[in-house]
Amino acid sequence: MGLDIRWPIGLMFSLLGAMLVIYGLATSANAELYQRSLDINVNLYWGLLLLVFGGSMLAMAWRGSRQPNGPEAQKGTGNPEATPR
Amino acid sequence: MHSANLGTIDYVILAIYVAFVIGIGFALRRYLKSSSDFLTSGRSIPAWVTGLAFISANLGALELVGMAASGAKYGIATCHFYWVGAIPAMVFLAVFMMPFYYGSKARSVPEYLKMRFDERVRALNSIAFAVMTVFASGISMHALATLLNQLLNWNYNHALWICSAVVLVYVLKGGLTSAIYTEVLQFFMIVLGFAPVVYLGLRDVGGWGAMNQSLQAVAQNPAALNLGTKPYSADAWTSAWKPLLGGPTANPMGVDIFAMVFGLGFVLSFGYWCTNFLVVQRAMAARNMGAARRTPLIAAVPKMLFPALVILPGMIAVALTSMPNKGYRIPPPVLSNAAYDKAAAVVKDPGTTDPAAAVQAVSTALGAKLNPEKVNALVKECGHLSDTQIKDGLYDAVTEYDYNGVILSLVKKYCPPGMLGLALTALLASFMSGMAGNVTAFNTVWTYDLYQAYFVKNKSDQHYFRMGQAITVVGILLSIACAYFAKRYNNAMDIIQLVFSFVNAPLFGTFLLGMFWSRCTGTGAFLGLIGGISTSAVVHGFTVAEGKGGWLAQALSMNPVYTFPSTMAQNFWLAALAFVACFTLTLVISLLTSRTKTDEELKGLVYSLTPRLKDDEKSWYLRPAALGILLLACCVVLNLIFR
Predict the structure, then answer these.
(1) How many CB pairs under 8 A join A and B?
(2) N or C: which end of chain B has fewer CB within 10 A?
(3) Is B437 a domain residue?
(4) Element (H or E) spanning A66, and its range?
């Protein structure tokens, strides 16, 4: 099917990650807020991780889109396909 | 009791997620041209996508909530559902069964049954499956809406209708492809949303070693936390196999090793993973035979590691409950505010000076069992306490647990705004993936196996395409109706689920004989299936466990034949017996009846009559058998580590 699912996954997690990082930075002075999460600014750190994950998904989707005969061309041949896992 | 308040950021995260899943549906809309694009996604999807969808369709809200509950009740032995049950069955599906499902060009599991046997077997299987998927999705919708209502104060109706509407939009727009694609997105959402909660919980209890120590203390005296009445050996919550070897009295599951390995590991798991169209459909949508066979194998990798995400939270919750300084308890059953008001009034004026009678009166007013010392302390102190303080005290004194609330209670405990939105979105994602899985399996079985087979034959493909879309709407409306039914008649729902367990238990016997024995006949399969279903009903009717079952014995006013130590043991044994009955009956009746299908007709449907797939030239890591052996080896290692 024409859509590479890695684009929306990459976009969504990059967006969520960026939001959490910004929110985490903006609230980093608020110690009371992070008492719940054992005084760790989880929004900042987990947001960074989501950014890395989303970014790598986007990178893989971009690499996939540059291969002229994408996986679709191999339909039915049983050849190994270029997938991330 | 205290609901978490969502901030703006949490709602924004939720909204972004909803926008993306709906966006995927719309983006895929232009690729839909025929009924097979809509219902079977035209067999065009790469293996890693179908693999993650395979696991995600199974990871519904009930799985997530239920596994954490079992983790709290039974500890690490819950992993048997994964390492004894799921993984071997998934490897078997990939290596042995997928070639027939995919190679036969059947569009659904019931259609395979029709090709292999006859219309009767297909009709039995497709009707049971269609009804079951609607009820399953209704029950899980009800469970989720209840949870959101109780713990977040969301309106039950809003939660139910809005979630269903989102699923409806993206399934209707993009069909099975859209369901599968969003399931992949949901898979990552669930993992990335819950992982930080588990990490924080584990850190809070002091790490894996400290958690095990407190669980060992709990196991030796579970009565102190009202987790059980009798003491177990220290490793009851922290070892997967040792308590099981001690027999049903030595482990909190109350299960013996035969029931575990044969009943759960063989019959129930193979029956679910190898024959349930909900998951098999994902593999059947793969773009070629190699991808279809790799689908369950790719799915097995995350499945093997999921206990860390879904079972560990339950164990953390028990460990936290045993540490008084953490201020956490497994949530009590949710009681209405009115009940708390009533009970608080009784605390202030118990109308008796006898402490035991006072506790009894408060307990009746609240509708839950209470810790007598805590209630007596409240009665004595109530002069100095505000109403809220009394109600908090009562909440604390309830000695019953609502294990299904474990996951959300941990989310609430550890998540600041931001993370809270992410974790809740993960919960909603799990719910939506489960529901979309049920709906897409339901519309395919209805359109191809019931509507096209029995009602309106030989129409144009566009006709069935439109039917598929219409039945998607109907399926979701029926699920909503089932959710309200479950809300109204909880007991009726238990009975319906019980009936499904009867229907499902023997199914694997039919497939096993059908796929590997060309002599097996349609009559044999049909009567064997009926015999297996009746066997499970009769066994359930004549045995009891924790007050469940024994209804046939009661109707005939005689004593139950056998008492199982737990309902879980009863379920496993029931499945084992139903399987044996179905297998034997199918075998005997097949030998007594004459074959209706020739060897030529069974080519591609039965193992011995199908040319072996040549996959020698592929690199080893793409060969299903090699991957399967590797996965089983990993599984054995995990079992040994946590023995």
Answers:
(1) 114
(2) C
(3) yes
(4) helix A42-66
